Amino acid sequence: QTKEMSKTVSAVGVHLTDDDVNELATRHLEDSQMMEVQWDSTISVLKEEQKREFKNFVIESFAGREVTTPVTPKDFIVEGADSVVVEASEPTLEESFTIHLGAQMKQMHNLRLLSADVIHLCKYMSHDASDIPPQRIQTSMSLYSHNLNGLVLLVDDRVNTYTGIKRDFGRLCSRSTELHFPDLEDQLESIRNLVPQVVQWRRDHPPPQYDCDEESP
Questions:
Q1: Residues 105-128: pLDDT tens digits?
Q2: Among 179, 182, 202, 204, which has the minimal tally of Cβ within 10 Å of its Cβ?
Q3: What are the boundaries of each domain within the chain?
Q4: Cβ-Cβ contacts under 8 Å for 170 (sequence gap 6 or more)
Q5: What is the C-alpha to C-alpha distance for residues 122 and 113, in angstroms, rounded to an integer?
Q6: In whole angstroms, what is the distance from residue 4 CA to residue 32 CA?
Q7: Where does the source fall among the domains of life (predicted)?
């Protein structure tokens, strides 16, 4: 399209007019929109198929297994499959600490301070697209346990994925199929619909006001 548009623009005034350029631009836009719709539909169908395959895979893998049997990422790795390669990231600065908190019963906590691009913590890459990376399996298994992990992104107050780190995170989420929750855009749409209701509820139910100068009964 770029070459065709450049060729058309260069011919304006020779044997083409501005109307020809506008007509070509309109046709290119329609073709791009149609192609985008087709790809969105294809990707959506593929994601639904992957969800069904993952569900069937889990059911078949753990059929007849004791509930108390621990689950590890190794249970999901196909024998003979290629190893997983994590995307290379920039050098990071990190340091670990061990601290003890508590007055009488002190508890030990291990802390690690890490200076890096937070988006790199969400990336993974596999040789074979048919294999499920162990990093994602580990996360999936912990979703149903008491050992939950999360990532906090500091963003602005606009509920979208159009700019900044929100855009990078949204693109990263769209690269893989979400096997447990609705897609990111669907979750954001639910939040956008819920926020006005929450704001209105807070207006209708203001917190009680207390006069600090009044003496207690």
A1: 888 888 888 887 888 777 765 545
A2: 204
A3: 1-69
A4: 161, 184, 185
A5: 17
A6: 14
A7: Eukaryota
Reported residue count of the chain is 217
pTM passes above 0.70: no
Phi/psi zone of residue 32: left (φ > 0), alpha (ψ -120 to 50 degrees), beta? Answer: alpha
Rounded distance between C-alpha atoms, residue 82 and residue 88, angstroms: 18
Neighbours of 120 (CB within 10 A): 14
Interacting residues of 73 by C-beta distance below 8 A, sequence separation 6+: 134, 135, 137, 138, 141
Residue 81's Cβ-count burial label (10 Å; 0-12, 13-18, 19+) is middle
- 25-76 pLDDT, tens digit each: 888 888 888 888 888 889 888 888 988 888 888 788 777 666 555 555 555 5
d(CA 137, CA 61): 13
193: phi > 0 → left, psi -120 to 50 → alpha, else beta; which? alpha
pLDDT in the model for residue 132: 60
Quick one: pLDDT at residue 194?
92
